[in-house]
Design a protein that fits this description.
29% of the residues lie in helices and 27% in strands. The longest helix is centred in the N-terminal third of the chain and has 23 residues. The chain has 429 residues and is of the alpha+beta class.
């Protein structure tokens, strides 16, 4: 008999069905036993006649198969239940569970949850996190595909770091030395110059930063886009604003069930996302919050204070910061005057989720900016070659998938939005 999912059973009242899943809870009475079965679609109550079945072997999280008749009935889960006619234990639990999964909330610390990741994922609130994340990724792809972008897949083992810094993981590559990619930046630009014009990628990126905070990962998923024939970074910000609106609408349309499980509110974007020049933001921090200890960049406290300002004064949970200092941006960023850049960050609920901007498209200007950054030109010959053969004005951005998921859901630690986190101290599971 073909297996049916729990959320399909309402269409099979008074019919015989086969359901399979995990035992969520067992409650034994004198003459009957109630089993709550869980599959990927939900929970259902199953009723067993104790005179017909031995229920002593039934333990929480064992995997079972049930053949039974769907009956109308009132319970806290559904307006129906399954009257068991046949029961098979597919796989029983051999050890005491390290996590209690049949509670409303998963009452364990973060390390216990991550150490038992495959088990903790069975809890509906943990599952809901990654269902929401899946909606975000799908919406990202859908929006860009609908707007003339081509999805690409770039190498994660590279000859040089895209950011020009030292925060790269070195790997032995046969007789040569290579690195894990910090981003697909060079390849995105090359594909714009190759004639695709608009490209995007959803892929892993690696940063050898020795941070051990609730916002940093050493391996994360980066949602990148790059587009040619722009006027300036304003075109990228417009594209991101429309993209975020599309993601929010997708969450409202497809994520209602998971939003309710998690008890969160989906953010809104009303009108345009506010923009602040970076230097103006520094002045606001000084004037409004007496924050004077910044030297050309923001710290986590500053990001939180700017969120407070944006929320209270501008009625927005998002805010663009523009014209970042040249010395703080990578060598491919288009300068703006002597000290600024045609670049931006997007802050969302007190944390940076996007860095983007216009790139340098002129070969000679790019060479000069690389010299300004103290880089060795010969190390980037492969990347530079496309700029010798005609490159349009272009720009792009990247969104950290785990960060945006965590902030949308109000999670305290970005690791909660990561299936198998890789950080300063974690290599397993």
């Amino acid at each position: 008999m073909e297996r049916k999912l729990v959320n399909q059973l309402k269409y099979y009242i008074n019919e015989n069905v086969c359901i399979q899943g995990w035992i969520y809870r067992v409650r034994r009475l004198k003459s009957i036993t109630f089993i709550i079965l869980r599959d990927r679609s939900g929970l259902v109550q199953c009723v067993i006649n104790n005179t017909e079945f031995d229920t002593l072997e039934l333990t929480n999280e064992s995997v079972i198969s049930i053949n039974g008749i769907v009956k109308e009935g009132k319970n806290t889960l559904n307006p129906f239940e399954v009257e068991v006619k046949k029961l098979e234990i597919i796989s029983k639990v051999y050890e005491e569970l390290p996590i209690e999964l049949n509670k409303e909330n998963l009452e364990v610390n973060l390390n216990t949850m991550l150490n038992n990741r495959a088990l903790s994922m069975r809890h509906q609130k943990v599952t809901a996190i990654f269902k929401v994340q899946n909606i975000i990724v799908n919406a990202f792809r859908e929006f860009l595909n609908n707007n003339g972008f081509t999805e690409i897949h770039t190498p994660k083992i590279v000859k040089e770091g895209a950011e020009g810094g030292t925060e790269v993981f070195e790997v032995k590559y046969f007789e040569d030395k290579a690195y894990l990619a910090q981003s697909p930046q060079f390849y995105k630009q090359m594909m714009v110059g190759a004639g695709l014009e608009r490209v995007f990628e959803v892929g892993h990126a690696y940063r050898a930063e020795e941070h051990n905070t609730n916002r940093h990962l050493n391996e994360y998923v980066s949602m990148d886009l790059e587009m040619g024939f722009i006027e300036d970074e304003g075109d990228i910000m417009i594209m991101e604003e429309e993209l975020l609106k599309y993601i929010i609408q997708s969450l409202k349309k497809h994520g209602k069930e998971y939003v309710e499980i998690l008890g969160i509110s989906i953010p809104e974007i009303n009108g345009e996302i506010p923009k602040l020049d970076f230097n103006e933001a520094l002045e606001i921090l000084k004037r409004e919050y007496n924050k004077t200890d910044l030297e050309g960049d923001l710290d986590p406290e500053a990001e939180k204070l700017l969120y407070k300002y944006s929320k209270e004064k501008l009625n927005s949970e998002f805010i663009f910061l523009t014209n970042y200092p040249r010395k703080k941006r990578p060598m491919y960023t288009m300068p703006k005057g002597e000290f600024g850049t045609h670049s931006f960050d997007l802050l969302f609920r007190g944390i940076e989720i996007t860095t983007g901007g216009q790139r340098i498209h002129d070969y000679n200007m790019l060479i000069e900016n690389m010299k300004y950054k103290g880089l060795t030109i010969e190390d980037y010959e492969n990347y530079l070659s496309i700029f010798k053969y005609g490159m349009p004005k272009h720009g792009g951005m990247a969104i950290g998938l785990e960060r945006i998921t965590a902030k949308v859901l109000g999670l305290e630690n970005v690791r909660e939005a990561t299936l198998f986190p890789r950080d300063r101290k974690r290599l397993v599971p």
